[in-house]
User: What shape does this take?
Amino acid sequence: MPGKVVRVRRRERLGLAQRLYLPNIFVGLYVTARHFFRNLWGYIVGRKRTFVVQYPEEQVDYPDAFRGHPVLVALENGEPKCVACGLCEFACPTDCITIIPEETDAAIERYPREFDIDMSRCMFCGLCEEACPEEAIVMSRSVELATYEREPMLLHKKDLLRTEEQLGRRIDYMREEYAR
Amino acid sequence: MVEPARKSPSDENAGQLPTDRQVLNMGPSHPATHGTVKFTVELDGETITAMDVAVGYLHRAFEKECESGTYYQAIPYTDRLNYNSAILSNLAYCMAVEKLLELELPLRCQWLRVLASELSRMGDHLTRLGAACLELGAMTPFLYGIEAREINWDLQEMLCGARVTSNYIRIGGLQSDARPGFEDRCQESLDRIETLLVDFDKMITANRIFVDRFRDTGILSKERCIAFGITGPLLRAVGVPYDVRKAEPYLVYDELDFDVPIGSRGDNYDRFLVVQEELGQSIRIIRQCLPVVRKTVGEPVNVADPRVRWPGKDRVFGRMEELIQLFKGVTEGIKVPAGEAYCAIESPNGELGFYIVSDGSGKPYKVRCRPPSFVNTQPLAEMLQGGLLADIIPTFDMVNMIGGECDR
Ligand code: SF4
Ligand code: SF4
Assistant: This one.
């Protein structure tokens, strides 16, 4: 096995410069000033290097893999794609999904009459999305769920429905990454 | 709880100041203890004469909770152990289950796992070093450390979809493959992290104020370290070159070229330098992973056995057999042969191990985690005995106790 054991170099025998404190302050000032001017230059030429964003107004673009809260995919007629098989309910570690299935005479004969996700318990793990055999529950890109009460944290079917266009990037991601 | 040893003022020191010892409670929520932990310190002036460390404030029955779900459902819970390096906790758990299953992993999966775990290790080390500076009052190096961690977390987010709660490793594979463009981004980010580390080093490592606070504080001898079962940078700082990645190589670590940094005296300064050096070694490992990850694009990252790894969606959509496998896999959980296994990996704090007992069903019979933080926190009182009150902060920083992992 390559690689060896190295002993770290202790720089404790400080030279005169360090013992006098002052020169070190200038080293510190130099490093900080360099960062400052580099960041400032970045702002001027429009290539921002800092990480601070003015959050509610400015938002970062999350990567494709990003997992927001789970939502339901809607068909063209506005009904959920879900067939109420209950796999996501089983897969969810925190038991935060509640489904009440119902049967109809339509072409897809099963659908969820109620589909609730308790967002105060959901931990955005994505196991429901991985388990769903219908691509019906997917992780959205939204994470803004803060409320003053607990009641609005319980999302019902109508709050969860999203069209495929709204979810575009995530559905592409799923088709690429969950094919194995 | 330590009782103050009271001395009654006698006649001979009448007229002098009273010499009572003082008991000070620090924590459970103290700004300088980045974790919920309580110290009861007995002080003689500013010298610590006795100390009691109370852990357990973050206990949430992780091990018991794992028994209530299937093997898969425990993976997101492992994220919450060491929240600075969640991927490593995922990895340790999944590797223990894989040991029971006797799985042979695809090559690309192994390399990606190594890459992800080194990224994760870097994140943890950067936090530790940055926070150590902050708590000693040095704000600027903290910001450089955190900026480097930010770049690192962006990479992790690109890989697994979340910055902290990664949920990346799966039994027999990974949640997803690396996205196209990841390798280039990784290369760029590593360069930026390296320049930040140079600045960090300039500001702090040879700074006299910093060295004075770290040198010769919190010393623990080699014998005591071994007696306490300490692992990780703390053990390496006293000069024992023990690293699970070298001692019992897992994944592809035996093919990688990296050094094990050791210290000589075992004080906080040695610990700091060891961690700093390990950061460099992690970057070195990732640089070695990238060409292989580039070369193996398109190769599978999951085992093909649908009884272990839930079958992919493309197969589930079109075929009955796979659909049934998926239903069985999700509802009953994957069947792990009866038996027991212990698997340890090198986490940023030391040896992180999982001991799993299976009774052959879809749920673990027993999950036990060996948390390095807990073991490393034990000798805190001994390290600080005779030190100053102010030494608690750097020592505790270097011990890097993570509440989520220590208390489980
Ligand atoms: S993301 Fe995880 S916790 Fe949330 S509903 Fe899905 S499976 Fe449950
Ligand atoms: S797994 Fe998919 S199809 Fe089944 S109930 Fe959940 S959302 Fe509906």
About this structure: The first strand of chain A starts at residue 5 and ends at 7. The domain at 70-177 of chain A is CATH 3.30.70.3270 (Alpha-Beta Plaits). The first helix of chain A runs from residue 16 to 19.
